[in-house]
Amino acid sequence: MPPNIEFQEQKLREHHGDQDWKVPEDSIQDLPVDDPFTPLPAPDPPKEVPERFIRACEGNEEEAKKRYEATLAWRKEYGMDTTLTEAHPNFELIKANYPHFFHLTGHDGESVFYDQPPRTDLQKLKDGGVDTESLLHHYVMVTEFQWQFIDRDDLSRSITVIDLKGMRMTDFAGECKAYVQKCSEVTNQNYPERAGYIYVINVPRWFNMVWKIVKPWVDPATLEKITVVRGEHEVLDALLERIPIENIPEEYGGKSMPLGQSPEEELLRALMQHNIQRAEGDDSCGGRPSCCFCSFQYARSY
Question: Which residues lie below 8 Å from residue 92, measured CB to CB, with a gap of 6+?
Fold first, then answer.
C-alpha cells in the first residue's frame, strides 16, 4: 500500500462526502474474481440511454441513443474500463511538464480542476517519449479518475479553471492546437453534461482572435457556461462566486494548500504508484480487501 493513503482517503471524504468506490469486505467473496490482485470487472452499461446523454441532446432520444452507442464503442476501443487499473509510467513526466490539478470542491460540492496549458513543455514531453496521442490518453485517464474516484454521481458537474497566463500566440499552433481540439472533441462526445462552470482566466489581449478559432470546437451548451476573466482581483472575485476561499489555492488568492498538494492529487499519485508496483509484481499492497485500490470498482462503464 502506498504510504499515507488512508490519510489521503480520509481527507478526500471530508471534502467530497462518502464515496462507495471501495467494495465492502462482506461482498468481496461474491465477486467473480478469485485473485485478490486482479482488477474487478466494470459494471455492464445500462441498456437504457443515461439521462446525461438525453440532456445533452435536448431530449432527442434517438440522437442520444446514437451518441451513447458511439461512446460505448469508443470506451471499448480505447480500453477505458481498465485504464485506472493499468500502469502509467509516464505519469510523473507528464505532471511535471503539463500542470493540471484537481483541487477540493466548489460551494455545491463540485470537483474543481485547474489547467495551465501555457506552462506545458511539449519538447520535454517528446524527449521523454510522450507524443500527443499519449498525452490524450493521459487526459482521458485523468477524466476517468475524476468521475470514478472523486465524484461517482452520474449527474454531477465540475468546475474547470483554465489559466492562460503567459500564453504566446505561437503556443496556439501545430501540435498544441491539434491536442486542444482533440481533447475538446473527446470530452464533448463522451462526457456530456459534465461541465458545470468554466473559467478562462488571465487571458492575453489577443485572446479574442484565438477564441474565434476555439468556439466552433465547443458544444453550444458548454459555451454558455464559460466565463472569461482578466486581472488578479477579478479572477479571485469570479472564483469566489463558485468556490469557498478556504478551497481556492493560494496561487489564486485563496487560503488552501498549493496546487498539487490536495487530497485528490495525493490519491491520484498513490493510485499511479500502486499500479506501477503491481505491474512490476510487487504484492506489498496486500490485495483485496486490505488495499483500497485492489478493492476499487468502477461506478459505471459509460
Answer: 272
User: Residue 88 in contact with residue 49, Cβ under 8 Å?
Assistant: no
With beta carbons less than 8 A apart as the criterion, state whether 105 and 16 touch. yes
d(CA 137, CA 78): 8
Q: What tens digit of pLDDT does each residue of 220-274 get?
A: 777 889 999 988 899 999 999 999 999 999 999 999 999 999 999 999 999 999 9
Amino acid 1: pLDDT: 40
Q: Which residues contact 95 (CB under 8 A, 6 or more apart)?
A: 260
- 264 burial via Cβ count (<10 Å: 0-12, 13-18, 19+): buried
pTM for this predicted structure: 0.90
For residues 87 and 276, the answer to whether their CB atoms sit within 8 Å is yes
Tell me the pLDDT tens digit for each residue of 127-159: 999 999 999 999 999 999 999 999 999 999 999
Kind and range of the H or E element at 112?
strand 111-115
So what's the pLDDT on residue 242?
97
pLDDT at 21: 61
Q: Give residue 244's Cα distance to chain centre.
A: 21
Helices 263-279 and 5-16: angle between axes, nearest 10 degrees? 140
List, in sequence order, every beta strand (DSSP E) within 169-298.
195-201, 226-229
Q: Beta strand 226-229 with 195-201: parallel, antiparallel or unpaired?
A: parallel
160: three-class secondary structure by DSSP:
strand
* Cα–Cα distance, 189 to 218 (Å, whole number): 10
Which has the closest alpha carbon to 117: 173, 176, 198? 176
Say if domain 5-279 classifies as CATH 3.40.525.10.
yes
Residue 221, classed as helix, strand or coil, is helix
Q: Where are the domains positioned within the chain?
A: 5-279
pLDDT, the chain, mean: 89
